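[Structure tokenization] protein backbone as discrete codes
[Encoding] learned vocabulary of local backbone shapes
[Protein] chain in single-letter code, fold in tokens
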Amino acid sequence: MTTFKDRSDVIAELGAKHTIAEIFETLIEGEMPIRFTAYDGSKTGPDESPFGLEIKNPRGVNYVATAPGDLGMARAYIAGDMVADGIHPGDPYELLKAMQNMKFRRPTALELVVIARSLGWELMKPVTPPPQEAMPRWRRIALEGLRHSKTRDAEAIHHHYDVSNTFYEYVLGPSMTYTCAVYADENQTLEQAQENKYRLVFDKLRLQPGDRLLDIGCGWGGMVRYAAKRGVQVIGATLSAEQAEWAQRKIAEDGLSDLAEVRHSDYRDVPEGEFDAVSSIGLTEHIGVANYPAYFGYIQSKLRDGGLFLNHSITRPDNTRSTKAGDFIDRYVFPDGELIGSGRIISDIQNVGLEVLHEENLRRHYALTLAEWCDNLVKNWDAAVAEVGLGTAKVWGLYMAGCQLGFERNVVQLHQVLGVKLGTNQEWTVPLRPWWEP
């Protein structure tokens, strides 16, 4: 099919009319890898593909045309203006895999005129995005303050984590653990692998009964309860009110109130110090790369001499790319989230005076974890939709399946970094070789 994107003189096309499929073709580079159909009867892409996208109405075209790329596609899909064939909305992994090499391009000004002439100028006016979408970055500054201020961090965490504890139970399973599991092998269940992750963190930190642990960004308190069950005094901090309430209730049910506490608090407001260990499992992604020195400096100040620190976080595979998340992740999943390579994390840990003892990449483990979460969402789909609505449930399926693919393709990684706070004499206070089972 010849479309106006293939012709050199765009101006000659200003008076022409084009189908929706032809317009869609102008927004991508190369061939369409799956079937695409539209409400005007036009189509493109291979008929034999097991997967297809269908634009159902003019609003879907508006979303895709005015924000070419993952944001526009997500808007149309989440709003129900574009439907996907051949997948379950709780796990669109296979569809995303088929589309993994599809690249979008922004149309030129002249091409936008051609699109507007074809669709009608009224159709090109901006329309309200789905309600699950967060404000753009520039509006967040105006209404919530500078990025990673306490107020803005609290709002970002609220957007993602205060969805519904019941919904998270459907997705995460009994462990209520929203971080990468660690699999001894691929035959382990999700619950076994999450227990194994907590065991690994506990052992790396050399925790013993009577020790004191600070768990920053503790979520629903999985690490807090794991350590308290083994005689450790634990304080957990989370910016999510719903997480804190759930965690405190679970601590009481488990009879751990004398040892464990989860506070609805910014970690910067925890006054206690001289901890034997500090764990940060899945928080570094939220604090901002520019704030790493202050963050790791805070952790250094909370440790006693000889105390150990473990940072578990998603990273990029190098230290050169933009730290900001893509538009879909920033608007629908993690507002203000930032990632950089493990090299930057290690450097900033070292620069505040913590000695790095060990680091490892668990990239493949996170792909396995996300596949399990998607499977849980599919199994509990009707209940999940009833709890949070179809649009939000679709956001989660899209996000988790996309992240699974990202970890498999080495777009993102997961690193654990272990450090120690040395005393003034720089004495080595840990065994000569790793003391934990992998």
